[in-house]
Amino acid sequence: MKQPIHIAVTGAAGQISYSLLFRLAAGDFLGKDQPIILHLLEISPALPALQGVVMELQDCASPILHGVIITDDPKIAFKDVDYAFLVGARPRSADMERKDLLQVNAAIFSVQGKALNEVANRTVKVLVVGNPANTNALIALSNAPDLKPENFSCMTRLDHNRALSQLAEKCDVLVTEVKNVIIWGNHSGTQYPDIQHAKVKDQGALSLVDHNWFENTFIPTVQQRGATVIKARGLSSAASAANAAVDHMRSWVVGTSEGEWVSMGIYSDGSYGIEPGLMYSYPVTISNGKVSIVQGLDINDFSRQKMQLTETELKEERSAIKHLLS
Ligand code: NAD
Ligand code: LMR
């Protein structure tokens, strides 16, 4: 019998978690033979609702769910965890500016970074989902000096999956026949969804679709997909976000296939001229848990300009919360 693996999920009573927790308990992340213990973190007022979610988890009678800890204390939630899904964050209300959201959520991620630093397993893999995800991840890692930047990542896999799906639909092929799209930069409207290196049934994507569609339909559709879902549903994407979180973490553990890459927000090492020390989404390959940026891709002027635009936004976000960076 395998030993249970400890997984923390924050914002556990929220909408993304309402999908994510059940995917974890079904074995979609680590497999159907790997026991898990869930450490669920919420703010105190949400603990009663979280109790209800836990009742439902119990009612699934999952053979791999060997325990559930619920708490409003990050140091209990992150104690000895191997994986942490940082989903909990306050969503923007109508009266809030983006910079207000940055300030409120930034404080959450500095507390959680410190707690991870103190009590998490030293090999913990952290995924930040809560928005603004890239900058929240930067705050968490800079408050965790005893962990490495490589312990931290932020989620652009939902954007990556959106890009795969849009391109597959346009080319009338299966999603599995599309490879190597890239999301560069921030998980925001400035992200650059790039198909210049993508393959559709082993042919270059840009030999199959025209540049006008790429520039004026594909890019804005992927950039604005989150907002479009919010408009249609009245709530932000939840099941697809949970699915992307599982995909992201599973790729980190299982690795990427030969010749294929995925997009992941990671600590920039300066690759492609991006300022080192930003959490920037790159195309990556993964082997034995080690994430490597895909090197040597040709970047034309069109791409360079878009990659820099999203980099500039990340620098601005970083300067708005610089008092929280240690
Ligand atoms: P939600 O409001 O339904 O749930 C968020 C939960 O977090 C709430 O239950 C809240 O009580 C909890 N929370 C707030 N502060 C907390 C704290 N300090 N510790 C623990 N829990 C805390 O929101 P949701 O729809 O589940 O979305 C969660 C976040 O994910 C939002 O920031 C959303 O914008 C973001 N998101 C990111 C992506 C992405 O691709 N990166 C995609 C979708 C949503
Ligand atoms: C998404 O991409 O669906 C979320 O980040 C929600 C948003 O604000 O766009």
UniProtKB/TrEMBL annotation:
Any matching Pfam family: Ldh_1_N
Keyword NADP appears in the UniProt entry: no
UniProt domain Lactate/malate dehydrogenase C-terminal: residue ranges: 156-322
Source species taxonomy: Bacteria, Pseudomonadati, Pseudomonadota, Gammaproteobacteria, Methylococcales
Catalyses which reaction(s): (S)-malate + NAD(+) = oxaloacetate + NADH + H(+)
Enzyme Commission number(s): 1.1.1.37
Keywords: NAD, Oxidoreductase, Tricarboxylic acid cycle
Molecular function via GO: L-malate dehydrogenase (NAD+) activity
Protein name: Malate dehydrogenase
Encoding gene, per UniProt annotation: mdh
Annotated family: Belongs to the LDH/MDH superfamily. MDH type 2 family.
One GO BP: malate metabolic process
Chain positions recorded as NAD(+) binding sites: G11, A12, A13, G14, Q15, I16, S17, N105, Q112, V129, G130, N131
SUPFAM superfamilies: LDH C-terminal domain-like, NAD(P)-binding Rossmann-fold domains
Active site positions, chain numbering: H187
Function statement: Catalyzes the reversible oxidation of malate to oxaloacetate.
Superkingdom assignment: Bacteria
NCBIfam families in UniProt: MalateDH-SF1 (TIGR01759), PRK05442.1 (NF003916)
Domain Lactate/malate dehydrogenase N-terminal: 6-152
Binding site for substrate: R92, R98, N131, R162
Broad EC category: oxidoreductase
Coiled coil: none
